[in-house]
Design a protein that fits this description.
The chain is α/β, with parallel strands linked by helices. It has 3 domains: about 90 residues, NAD(P)-binding Rossmann-like Domain (Rossmann fold, 3-Layer(aba) Sandwich), CATH 3.40.50; about 200 residues, Mur-like, catalytic domain (UDP-N-acetylmuramoyl-L-alanine:D-glutamate ligase), CATH 3.40.1190.10; about 130 residues, Mur ligase, C-terminal domain (Protein-Tyrosine Phosphatase, Chain A, Alpha-Beta Complex), CATH 3.90.190. Helix content is about 35%, strand content about 25%. The protein contains 15 helices and 22 strands. The chain has an 8-stranded mixed β-sheet with strand order 8-7-9-6-10-11-12-13, with helices on both faces. β17 and β18 form a beta hairpin. α5 crosses α8 and α6 packs across α7. The longest helix has 17 residues. The radius of gyration is 22 Å and the shape is globular.
């Protein structure tokens, strides 16, 4: 692991899910960590302070003696603190670049892809913990059992969620890599689908000669670029298609059961996590464990105990008549479709989709897809767009979305959304909050 003992690190955007996990990891490895964040009320900041990490107001930053400055991709390079660090000769890294140093210098399992990264990261971390490998786990979310986005362990392995959103992932060279899928995403950075594909091609072609690559073999584009660009040791394809090395059979029965053959043996994995997407996630995690050297029996047992991660079909509250308020991070049409398809198959309850669009650019580009998948719900409540600082006519975008969904869609402001849901839904409905913004926090604290 990187030698950080007594190094001083200043982190900008330290309240973000990725930077805060990095701060906790660096602190656990002996570094002196401090940082700042525009939103000083974020709950994660209290956790950081409790761990001895100094949080400063932006206008009171202190770079004295700092060895490294790490910044979130939400922070512009022109920011005065970054410019001050440059003048002071401090080494500067984007969050993804700094994480990449840990990945490249150690035994590492990295999970990337458009959807499912956080669940697979924590599932693999959970497996290694249960099998006494004591991993370090760096996640882009909060594990339900772990209640943190970073878990420190003394073992050799680092399990890390590798975010493709700012392109820094192309420099990472993990020992084992899982790519869950390759839907076109992050259109604010990748202006065309071709640019998005090229980034994954560069990432795959740069992998080490003895590396392992585990992919969703049913993703045709991902399968093609993996076969054409991977020069590592072992390519493992998983999916329902007959061409996959692990051809899976999925059985939905309350949770998820997936079956496949491995080295002539029938493997059956079970989990309380619902949905076909979680059958894929279990399979990816199984083969990551096999690649580490774990036995099938260990993997089968540990996977069955996994609790999941926060904001991934997480039941927040149960109201009158078993009306459930469910939080889900779905902010891309594919993610929302996976959840709604799973719930619709249950067929027992009315489904109320509460949708907080994330970024104007994403809503505009995928407008028709969002409208189509949301129509699966019995009722759709659209609330204010979480712009993440993007400009644009939010009113026009919201109006277009509601018109495209049709009569089952209405708009309710974020200020009124909690009372509206409680007042109108109490007959056993499933109210699913689709949000990568702050909608979850409104319902979580009430």
């Amino acid at each position: 692991m990187m030698k950080l003992k007594d190094n001083k690190i200043f982190m900008m955007g330290i309240g973000g899910i990725g930077v805060s996990a990095l701060a906790l990891m660096c602190k656990s490895l002996g570094a002196q960590v401090s940082g700042c964040d525009k939103k000083e009320s974020k709950p994660i900041l209290k956790t950081l302070k409790d761990k001895g990490i100094r949080i400063l107001p932006e206008n009171e930053y202190d770079l004295k003696g700092v060895d490294y400055l790490v910044y979130s991709n939400a922070v512009p390079f022109q920011h005065e603190i970054i410019q001050a660090a440059i003048k002071a000769g401090i080494s500067i890294f984007k969050r993804g670049e700094f994480l990449g140093k840990f990945i490249n210098e150690n035994k590492s399992i990295a999970v990337t892809g458009s959807h499912g990264k956080t669940t697979v990261t924590f599932l693999i971390g959970h497996i290694l913990k249960e099998c006494n490998r004591s991993p370090k786990i760096y996640g882009g979310g909060i594990g339900l059992k772990e209640e943190s986005n970073y878990i420190h362990g003394d073992g050799d392995w680092l399990v890390a969620e590798l975010d493709e959103s700012d392109r820094t992932f192309v420099g990472a060279k993990p020992t084992i890599t899982v790519i869950t899928n390759m839907d076109y995403e992050h259109i604010d950075l990748y202006k065309t689908k071709k640019e998005h594909t090229k980034a994954f091609e560069e990432f795959i072609s740069g992998m080490k000669a003895d590396s392992v690559l585990i992919i969703n073999g049913d993703d045709e584009e991902l399968l093609s670029i993996s076969k054409n660009n991977f020069k590592g040791g072992s390519l493992i394809t998983c999916g329902q298609g007959a061409h996959n090395r692990a051809k899976i059979n999925v059985i939905m029965n309350g949770g998820t059961k997936v079956e496949f053959n491995h080295n002539g043996r029938k493997i059956t994995l079970t989990s309380g996590l619902k949905g076909i997407h979680n059958a894929y996630n279990q399979t990816f995690a199984y083969f990551a464990g096999i690649s580490v050297g774990l036995k099938p029996e260990e993997l089968i047992d540990s996977i069955s105990h996994f609790k999941g991660v926060r904001r991934r079909y997480e039941i927040l509250r149960v109201l009158q008549n078993n009306t459930e308020i469910i939080s889900d991070y779905g902010h891309h049409p594919t993610e929302i479709k996976a959840v709604l398809d799973t719930v619709v198959k249950d067929g027992k309850n009315k489904i109320i989709a509460v949708f907080e669009p994330h970024k104007n650019s994403r809503l505009g580009y995928f407008m028709n897809d969002f409208a189509s998948v949301l129509q699966t719900a019995d009722k759709v409540i659209c609330t204010d767009i979480y712009t993440a600082g993007e400009g644009g006519d939010v009113g026009a975008l919201m109006k277009e979305l509601i018109e495209k969904i049709g009569n089952k869609a209405i708009y309710v402001s974020k200020n009124d959304i909690m009372n509206f849901v409680i007042d109108n839904y109490c007959k056993g409905e499933k109210v699913i909050l689709f949000s990568a913004g702050d909608l979850d926090s409104i319902f979580r604290v009430q």
